[in-house]
Design brief:
This protein has about 80 residues and is mostly helical. The protein has helices spanning about 15, 20-25, 30-60, 65-75. The protein has a domain at about 30-75.
Length: about 80
């Protein structure tokens, strides 16, 4: 079906470029808590993905990618 973009033909606004409407959702308490928790959980995940492969290799694990894939599946 014909589904044009909702803002097709409208002028571009700076507000749209900076996603101001999305940041306005942070005024909602439950969304703010969700966003904070997601941010805090992402900090150790970044460390995990950056350093686990080299740590496992140093520990003598041969199939590092297989073991890390199993770890990622366990997260799901």
């Amino acid at each position: 079906p014909h589904t044009p973009a909702p803002a097709k033909g409208l002028p571009l606004k700076v507000r749209d470029l900076f996603c101001a409407d999305a940041f306005a959702l942070l005024r909602l308490r439950h969304f703010l808590i969700f966003a904070l928790c997601a941010t805090l959980i992402s900090i150790p995940l970044g460390t995990y993905y950056a350093f686990t492969a080299s740590w496992l290799a140093d520990a003598g694990i041969r199939e590092v990618s297989t073991l890390m894939s199993l770890g990622q599946m366990s997260e799901i």
